[in-house]
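Batch queue: ligand-bound targets. Current item pairs a single chain with 2-acetamido-2-deoxy-beta-D-glucopyranose. No template structures supplied; prediction is de novo from sequence plus SMILES. Inputs echoed for audit trail.
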Amino acid sequence: MDKVLFLTVTLSLFVVITQVKCSSSRLKRVTKAQVLGFDWKNCGQPDAPAVLKTLTVSPDPISIPGDLTASAAGSTSVELAAPLAVNVTLEKEVAGFWVKVPCVEELGSCHYQDACGILSQLIPPGQDCPEPLHTYGLPCRCPFKAGSYSLPQSDFYLPYMDLPYWLTNGNYRVQGVLGSQGSELGCLKVSLSLHSD
Ligand SMILES: *[C@@H]1O[C@H](CO)[C@@H](O)[C@H](O)[C@H]1NC(C)=O
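Prediction returned. Tokens below.
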């Protein structure tokens, strides 16, 4: 898939995994959750080096645990290499207003200075990239060479997860800004609704 897409997906997974790993003291048991109305858009400058071109996720709603089908494509006109910074802003709709969720134990609206380092921690160098990336020869660690990346339609199983205690039912939007050495490389906004028992 597009490098950008790949990176986006990888970073999203990264953020989710890191948050789940790092906030074990604040997790709550969730039997079942549903994600509804997943939507996304680029939010960088029109000439941003890294852009997501397509991202299709189904079904709607997505059940957790459950099966997810996704395809994506993106591109980057510059190599994405360390140091890569990612600023995440997570907002929740409360009584009609968007309220920023603070960064708590590496989850929420957090600034990650070294996204490449995090990826290398999650998937140690030398280890194959997780499927379906491996099958399609897509990278999962820095550097991501300039070029186009695309992930054909693939099935994923979303396992049972413990969610942070503050991740309650409602509408959320997340913005991720990717930057390196003071310049913005790309920006992605995702919105979704969460419903759990
Ligand atoms: C992240 O936010 C910090 C503080 O506002 C800022 O200095 C930095 O440039 C931002 N980085 C990105 C990639 O947007």
